[in-house]
Amino acid sequence: MESRESPEKSLPRLVDVWPDLVGEIVALLRESRPRDPIADTISRLPFHGIRRSYVLTAPEGTPSPWVIALEHEAETVFLLGIDSSQSAVTWVDVLDGRDPPAPLLRRS
Description:
Blueprint: H1 7-10, H2 14-17, H3 19-32, E1 49-51, E2 54-56, E3 66-72, E4 75-82, E5 89-94, H4 102-107
């Protein structure tokens, strides 16, 4: 029998698989863009895996014409791909050299 559950609902949330990353992104967004509602959506993002060093929070290939650069102490540590509506993060590029937790690497 085919499942009626959407693939999006069966995916883990990014906050459940990499909570430290989500916490840092939210803190930097609130610091640099205090009125931007995107910060409120980060904890609900699904985890679609890691592809070509990007943490995907939308299906691979989702158009992301906007990018937000997040800095810590004058160094860019994250780039966030933003969808066409400018309301959802579609990918995260982690630029500070950290490795994702081992369970994430197995999902890619």
